[in-house]
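Suppose you are handed a protein chain with no further information: no name, no annotation, nothing but its sequence. What can you learn? This example shows the usual starting point.
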Amino acid sequence: MDKKSFEMVLDEIRKVVDLLRYFSWAEPQLKAMKALQHKMVAVQPTEVVNILNCFTFSKDKLVALELLASNIIDAQNSRPIEDLFRINMSEKKRCKRILEQVVF
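A reasonable first move is to predict its three-dimensional structure. Written in structure tokens, the prediction is:
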């Protein structure tokens, strides 16, 4: 991906993050994620973390991660994403399963 395309993708992701912060509940945030899913292509793990941090609860973060999963590039370096789910072991396992599907 050339630099201009990459900057366009980053700009779209910033817009999504700003939009998600506008909503205070997970339901409208997740609806917005579904609607904007096609705009978030070639998302780096650090950008995924920025998006997931817009959600309060881990269960909502996991749903959002599932929506983003097919758009994640460099998923083998997803340690920052996994670190969001380091407390609850079942959530951590679910996160790993989602990310493993991306890698393969």
